[in-house]
Write a structure and sequence with these properties.
With 258 residues, this protein is mostly helical. It has one domain (4-256). It has 10 helices and 2 strands. The chain has helices at residues 4-8, 24-33, 62-72, 81-90, 96-109, 129-135, 143-154, 170-177, 183-189, 225-256; strands spanning 53-57, 115-119. It has a two-stranded antiparallel ribbon. It is globular. The mean pLDDT is 91.
């Protein structure tokens, strides 16, 4: 598994799991690439609630797709990435160039280049690390926000204050110990180098919106033309940046086994 195409091809749910990041192909990927760091056994990367680790889709499609659709529609939000892509493609208010980018990213986002195993341990009801990243208002499924919290709260030194409860579960603590308290080790053993501006791993490439970007996490009664223009510009930036990161990570994964 050393061809870049192996890491950029779409992974489909199968008999193991309907979720692509927990499908059989994904479990084999985790067991191979995280064999020394986590576990060499595919069974340890099973469905949520049934294993030690759970696959996570690192960069979300639905967050940015949902935002763009809220800028142009008032109907109920379609569920799932394919339904949202169809709604984007049918909108007359979205440019052909942005539609093309969404189509390309929708194929890439369920690929091995966008997957990563995280500990599967719930601290409250159904909230594991995967879920916390996706639903918490602190992160909105943006990896730069979530992994900044990991950096600050887990690898920040002996006086660090941990405010994210999911970092303190037994499985999460055991998971973080595997990186020996070293942020560099965490980044490199998770193949996250391409999410940073340089090899110090202190500055993330920005995916999350700034204070001036328009991203709609819920519907607004009124969306102005300026809101729409700003939101579309941010979406274009996000998609371009996300696909660059994932293509670079795919090359890194392919090269690491040569």
């Amino acid at each position: 598994m050393t061809d870049k195409l192996c890491f950029t091809s779409e992974v489909i749910g199968d008999q193991y799991s309907a979720d692509p990041d927990s499908a059989g192909k994904s479990r084999a990927f985790y067991a191979n690439y995280w064999a020394n760091t986590l576990s060499p056994y595919p069974a340890d990367y099973s469905k949520a609630g049934e294993a030690v680790y759970r696959g996570d889709t690192t960069i979300s499609f639905n967050t940015i797709a949902g935002s763009v659709l809220r800028l142009v529609m008032t109907e109920d939000m379609p569920q799932g990435s394919f339904a949202r892509l169809q709604a984007i493609q049918s909108s007359e208010l979205i440019t052909d160039d942005l539609k093309r980018q969404f189509t390309e990213f929708q194929k890439l986002y369920h690929s091995l280049a966008n997957f990563l195993p995280l500990p599967d341990d719930k601290w409250h009801r159904h909230t594991n690390m995967n879920t916390a990243k996706g639903v918490s208002a602190a992160y909105h499924d943006f990896p730069d926000l979530f992994y900044q919290a990991v950096h600050d709260q887990v690898f920040g030194g002996p006086n660090t204050v941990v405010t994210e409860p999911v970092f303190t579960t037994n499985k999460s603590l055991a998971y973080f110990k595997r990186f020996n308290g070293q942020w560099r080790q965490f980044v490199e053993q998770n193949y996250l180098q391409d999410f940073f501006t340089d090899d110090t791993y202190n500055d993330f490439i920005r995916l999350a919106p700034t204070d001036t970007d328009i991203v709609l996490y819920r519907a607004r009664k009124v969306v102005t033309p300026m809101d729409r223009e700003n939101g579309m510009a941010y979406a274009q930036y996000f998609l371009t940046t996300a696909m660059t990161i994932l293509n670079n990570r795919a090359s890194r994964l392919a090269d690491s086994k040569k």
